[in-house]
Design a protein that fits this description.
- The chain is of the alpha/beta class.
- It has 17 helices and twelve strands.
- It has helices at 13-21, 35-49, 65-71, 74-86, 101-105, 133-148, 150-153, 175-188, 224-230, 241-255, 258-270, 274-281, 285-288, 299-312, 332-341, 351-359, 387-404; strands spanning 27-31, 58-60, 94-98, 122-124, 162-166, 192-197, 214-217, 233-236, 292-298, 316-323, 346-349, 366-369.
- α8 (175-188) links the parallel β5 and β6.
């Protein structure tokens, strides 16, 4: 009997496509989807992940029984396009049609149809039946560059000192705070932020990715393919004191601004990091070696938190559950069993882990949101996990929870 996956933590590459393309304001997407699948990705879930009540630049083709039963979805997509064209929705927009699992199941490849729609319309086959949201994000970022950026970028010269940030998209936990902190680190190291793609970019401005001297990839889960294609030096955004120090130092070296980077590090030790140092010197540090933590999140957060809390602060890491999960890593069943039997002092995770703790009646364990799925508003820029400010925020939250126990 095949294993049944408990409490699936990841969405599909169709969701990834919508959440990656739709931050670009000069794009409109037709998702070849039933109304319910549109509502989930465009209205229901973004309210919980990004506090966005409705993603406005996406419209469903509204697949119905007759399309599934034999006619295919081409006419539904064409009808949707004509309605939007006639009402001015597409004025000043580029149109992209995206497949969904439902349209892929009935073989609706619309590569030919899009040539009959608005000039320049393209079709992204999301591979939603086989790819998860992380692979989907990586693919669509590269696809956007190939289709809308690469040709014009050939004539754009690199400008020393400019730095791109690749990521986030919609649906990335804690994105505003982590993005804000990474921008601050780039400027502290002597760089200037060029484009934040796709979160603060436009489709028309995509070729300008070629201007940057260095690229910073915000997450381990996606963005590396595009960074490698751009052909510049690139760095991974950091979590923890050591990783952040190394990041700032290396960025300064790449930009030729090492003196400024070193000055920034010295200043951060006297200011931002003073709180960590004070907690380390104070009585609170007596707790650190006795604290155990479990982490269920993206690889970016699991690796970063493990290094910071475990290697740097000496806490015991009870378990690491990565998302997306690789075949040799623990899954939700194992995490649930651990949390029922012997939960750690702290759990960083999603709504799944919070439910498992509640099931087991483990009130002595403190829960800190660190991943989706789960309803949590993080639009403020004051809750970073990344960078120097992230090190302060994380330990501050933990100490405050210890005070409450």
């Amino acid at each position: 009997m095949p294993n049944v996956i408990r409490d699936l933590s990841d969405t599909s590459s169709y969701w990834a496509a919508i959440w990656t393309i739709c931050p670009l304001p000069d794009v409109h997407v037709i998702c070849d989807a039933p109304i319910g699948c549109f509502n989930l990705v465009a209205t229901a879930v973004p309210d919980y992940t990004d506090a966005v009540p409705h993603i406005e630049n996406v419209t469903p083709s509204v697949i119905r029984e007759q399309e599934v039963g034999g006619s295919g979805t081409a006419q539904a997509v064409k009808r949707t396009y004509e309605d939007m064209r006639d009402t001015g929705v597409l004025d000043g927009k580029r149109l992209i049609v995206v497949s969904t699992a439902e349209s892929e199941m009935i073989g609706s490849d619309l590569s030919d149809l899009v040539t009959q729609l608005q000039p320049g319309t393209t079709f992204f086959h999301s591979e939603s039946l086989s790819h998860d949201e992380w692979l989907g994000r990586d693919r669509v970022l590269q696809w956007l560059w190939d289709n809308y950026g690469a040709a014009e970028a050939a004539n754009i010269a690199m400008e020393p000192g400019l730095v791109n940030i690749i990521g986030p998209t919609y649906g990335c936990f804690n994105a505003p705070s982590d993005l804000h902190e990474v921008k601050r680190l780039i400027e502290g190291a002597g760089g200037r932020v060029n484009l934040v793609f796709p979160y603060e970019a436009t489709l028309a401005g995509m070729p300008n990715l070629a201007k940057a001297q260095v690229n910073v990839v915000l997450y381990q889960e996606f963005g590396q393919t595009l960074a490698q294609t751009l052909g510049r030096d690139w760095l991974q955004a950091p979590i923890g004191i050591k990783a952040t120090t190394a990041f700032v130092r290396e960025l300064g070296r790449l930009l030729g601004t090492s003196d400024q980077a070193e000055a920034f590090i010295r200043q951060e030790k006297k200011t931002t990091l003073q709180a960590v140092w004070d907690l380390w010197r104070g009585p609170q540090s007596d707790w650190f070696s006795t604290i155990s933590v479990g982490i269920a999140a993206t690889r970016t957060y699991v690796d970063g938190l493990s290094a910071y809390l475990g290697d740097e602060l000496g806490m015991q890491v009870a378990f690491r559950a990565y998302r997306p999960r690789h075949t040799d890593e623990i899954g939700n069943e194992e995490v649930r069993a651990i949390l029922h039997k012997s939960p750690p002092s702290f759990v960083f995770g999603s709504i799944n882990e919070k439910i498992y703790l509640s099931e087991g009646g483990k009130r002595q364990t403190s829960f800190i949101p660190a991943a989706f799925p789960g309803p949590v508003v993080r639009r403020s820029i004051g809750t970073p996990f990344m960078g120097f400010r992230g090190t302060v925020y994380i330990i501050q939250e933990m100490v405050n929870m210890l005070y409450e126990t």
